Amino acid sequence: MQLKTSDYLKKYGITLKKSLGQNFLSNEVFAKKIVELSEVNKNDTVLEIGAGAGTLTVALAETGATVYAIEIDERLKPILEERLLTFPNVHLIFSDFLALDLSFLPSGYKCVSNIPYYITAPILKRLIFTPFSALFIMMQKEVGERLLEKPGSSNRGFLTVVLQTVANVEKILTIPKSAFVPNPEVDSVVLKITRKEPFPFADGSQLESFWRFVSNSFSQKRKTIYNNLKTITKDTNVLELIIQEANIPSSARPEQLSEEQFLMLWKTWLKFTNEN
Ligand SMILES: C[S@@+](CC[C@H](N)C(=O)[O-])C[C@H]1O[C@@H](n2cnc3c(N)ncnc32)[C@H](O)[C@@H]1O
């Protein structure tokens, strides 16, 4: 009989750590569904962040794709090695994803992961700067819904804007708390994040500059964009000109602007301030 996630944990005497976001998929049904929806095939290279006890890793491995499974917690090594023994297409890397050199990822790779929720934003930030074709990321429902918000919603944050500028974002699955061991306090969703082509930035430093600009524009959400940008623009007369030239209402708040308006505002700001 095939062992379940909880059987493997029991077999190796592992107690899960909340501090590492260890809520594992309790069976393979949702893992298989996620892999099916991400259309992974044997020609793909797939990154998995947080392999855990390997439930999703096994489903990915079965497609024949080249899989790089990253896991910070070395206590899980014996479980992962046992479950993935017969899959030479899987490379296990025991490391902190946030500190890992990602230059091994080929252009067009996919990321399919049930990530540790406590570092969702830093993980997305790293992924945005890599040459992905699509990211299938499971995250806390409220966080996922925020990333889907359209202009005008007060729930829109700066990460929503940056993400929707570089990618098309959609929700493809909702997963109930009951599908995990131990049960978390919240439901989860899987977002499909596909790279926009043509990509709006020529290189990583442009994207970095846009990231900083949007982050500054949102520094105090209840303030207008004009007031937020005053902190990074020395001359307020120039700032007024920038806002006018970019065709943005002077009373606009950051959550009201679309990605296109943000791109226009950033480009105009660069032109007038010679910043980068
Ligand atoms: C939500 S669990 C998902 C486990 C497994 N993929 C599953 O679906 O059952 C997140 C996993 O990420 C690991 N993790 C936490 N912080 C990490 C980090 N900085 N780098 C890599 N893995 C990390 C945890 O140890 C945990 O195994």
Automatic annotation (TrEMBL):
Return the SUPFAM superfamilies for the record: S-adenosyl-L-methionine-dependent methyltransferases (SSF53335)
Q: Which reaction does it catalyse?
A: adenosine(1518)/adenosine(1519) in 16S rRNA + 4 S-adenosyl-L-methionine = N(6)-dimethyladenosine(1518)/N(6)-dimethyladenosine(1519) in 16S rRNA + 4 S-adenosyl-L-homocysteine + 4 H(+)
The protein's matches in InterPro entries, at most eight in alphabetical order, are given as:
KsgA/Erm, rRNA_Ade_diMease-like_C, rRNA_Ade_Mease_Trfase_CS, rRNA_Ade_methylase_Trfase_N, rRNA_adenine_dimethylase, SAM-dependent_MTases_sf
Subcellular location per UniProt equals: Cytoplasm
Short name of any one Pfam family annotated for the protein? RrnaAD
Keywords, A to Z, come to: Cytoplasm, Methyltransferase, RNA-binding, rRNA processing, S-adenosyl-L-methionine, Transferase
Instruction: Mention one GO molecular function.
Output: 16S rRNA (adenine(1518)-N(6)/adenine(1519)-N(6))-dimethyltransferase activity
An example GO CC term for this entry is: cytosol
Give the PROSITE patterns listed for this entry: RRNA_A_DIMETH, SAM_RNA_A_N6_MT
EC number(s) for this protein? 2.1.1.182
- Ribosomal RNA adenine methylase transferase N-terminal domain residues are 30-197
Q: Where does S-adenosyl-L-methionine bind?
A: 23, 25, 50, 71, 96, 114
What HAMAP family does UniProt report for this protein, alphabetically?
A: 16SrRNA_methyltr_A (MF_00607)
Q: What does this protein do?
A: Specifically dimethylates two adjacent adenosines (A1518 and A1519) in the loop of a conserved hairpin near the 3'-end of 16S rRNA in the 30S particle. May play a critical role in biogenesis of 30S subunits.
Concerning its family, UniProt says: Belongs to the class I-like SAM-binding methyltransferase superfamily. rRNA adenine N(6)-methyltransferase family. RsmA subfamily.
Identify this protein by name. Ribosomal RNA small subunit methyltransferase A
The organism's taxonomy opens as: Bacteria, Thermotogati, Thermotogota, Thermotogae, Thermotogales
